[in-house]
Design brief:
The structure is a homodimer of 86-residue chains.
Chain A lengths: L1 H15 L1 H11 L7 H21 L2 H27 L1
Helix pairs in contact in A: 1-4, 2-4, 3-4
Subcellular location (chains A, B): Membrane
Organism (chains A, B): Hypnocyclicus thermotrophus
Keywords (chains A, B): Membrane, Transmembrane, Transmembrane helix
């Protein structure tokens, strides 16, 4: 049981960890230290996890990655916007 | 076979996406737009994935998350260092 909780915590923490970054980026519109490369690759990877989750019919993989995708894409949009301004 | 490749790509992309951010942060030492909250929570979550991976004896979960942990902790160290300077 203990390790099942560790696994659940791992999923919840890595999924919701992007929330404080999304809030900071949307609030400050400051993406100076952020890597456009990271968020482009990461968002694509998360999208693949969602597709793979549907293939496996695994609701945990689907839901966790849809949440992460929403946070990551909102950061990526601000990053792209700021990059166009330069 | 196609979806197995999608799953593998998802894991590789989300794991290595943190490499460009780690390189940028170490090179520029600029963490202005980065969220300390995100990287603290994310690094903890990745650590839990490693523990869970050992419990499952799943080499893919263990190796992917050890790689991500190395990138994430290097970003977190610079973030903490900069926060102490303020």
């Amino acid at each position: 049981m203990f390790f099942k909780i560790i696994g659940l915590l791992a999923a919840v923490l890595t999924t919701f960890s992007f929330l404080p970054q999304a809030i900071k980026t949307i609030k400050t519109q400051n993406t100076e230290g952020l890597s456009l490369g990271m968020y482009s690759i990461f968002t694509t990877g998360v999208l693949f996890w969602i597709i793979y989750g549907f293939y496996l019919k695994d609701i945990a993989i689907i839901s966790a990655n849809i949440i992460t995708f929403i946070f990551a894409i909102s950061i990526l949009i601000v990053l792209i916007k700021n990059n166009f301004k330069k």
